[in-house]
Write a structure and sequence with these properties.
Layout lengths: L11 E11 L7 H14 L2 E6 L4 E8 H17 L4 E10 L10 H15 L9
Antiparallel strand pairs: 1-3, 1-4, 2-3
């Protein structure tokens, strides 16, 4: 496996995406968010979900193709659940200058920031 690639030869990607169901009959979109989470759980990709009212933000990491397929599957599932429109913002990062163990792309970044903050006497990157 070369640097920055998954075993399939695909680029290893870390994607942040914000999926916003629109035009739903009810003001809460929790059911739609839950449906996207169900989809992500089935992918086997590593992800974190942060919800805020009407959106799902996720950091998903794995081979580029699998990450894109997971985002597509979330769209399909949320449409199937009844959302007539979806707006999604996606930010994708890849790197080929060093080896990244699968599932550790975001962890390494957060750990490094926490180490720097610890030197300043802070203990966490989590807000209170």
């Amino acid at each position: 496996m070369s640097q920055g690639t998954a075993s399939s030869g695909d680029l290893y990607a870390v994607a942040d995406f914000c999926l916003v169901p629109m035009g739903t009959a009810e003001p809460s979109v929790a059911e739609y968010v839950a449906e996207c989470v169900r989809v992500l759980e089935k992918t086997g990709l590593k992800f974190k979900v942060r919800t805020d009212c009407v959106l799902i933000e996720s950091s998903t990491e794995g081979p580029w193709t699998e990450v894109m397929q997971a985002i597509h599957a979330c769209h399909a599932a949320v449409h199937a659940k009844g959302a007539p429109r979806i707006a999604t913002d996606i930010r994708i990062g890849t790197r080929v200058d060093r080896e990244i163990a699968p599932g550790t792309g975001n962890e390494g970044k957060v750990k490094r920031v926490e180490e720097i903050l610890a030197r300043d006497g802070r203990h966490s990157t989590h807000s209170t």
